[in-house]
Amino acid sequence: MAAEMVTGHHERALELLKADAQKILKLIEVQMGNLTMPQCPLYEEVLDTQMFGLSREIDFAVRLQLIDAEAGKELLGTLEKQLSALHEASMRK
Amino acid sequence: MAAEMVTGHHERALELLKADAQKILKLIEVQMGNLTMPQCPLYEEVLDTQMFGLSREIDFAVRLQLIDAEAGKELLGTLEKQLSALHEASMRK
């Protein structure tokens, strides 16, 4: 049973991180879809806080050797690209 | 080997969280020891950010069933008491 639990933890950790990343992506998409609306000034603060929270979870998972650093970097990198796309879109508006 | 790895992860998770909590405690103690000095205005912001980061790590560990929620609450609760003691001390200054 224990061997499954070990890989279970690894898979579960990555699953949780991907789910948390997905929540942030949703926030970004909602904002992208509402660019014509008056921007909620706190929106960037909310996204930054969520990104900081996710980066701490990823760092923790890497330190626990539940995921490798590359996987963590990739997860954050994808979100950061979306964030800067959102930022540029809101500048062009 | 796998059974040790499972308990290893549980113990390691709690160890990492305690070490991170210890870092925040150090920050609080440094500030407590320097109350007579002009307060760095960002100090509370730094502590809040660190507490938020730790709470996300704890939440992640609980969701992964690496620690139980009680242990996480206890860890945060201890720090929160220290934080309010610091806050009161700096008010009385």
TrEMBL record, chains A, B:
Q: Which Pfam families has this protein been placed in?
A: DUF1507 (PF07408)
Give the superkingdom in one word.
Answer: Bacteria
Listed name of the protein:
UPF0358 protein CGZ90_03540
Q: Which InterPro entries match?
A: UPF0358, UPF0358_sf
Q: Species name for this entry?
A: Fictibacillus aquaticus
Gene3D superfamilies in alphabetical order: SO2669-like
Q: What is the similarity comment for this entry?
A: Belongs to the UPF0358 family.
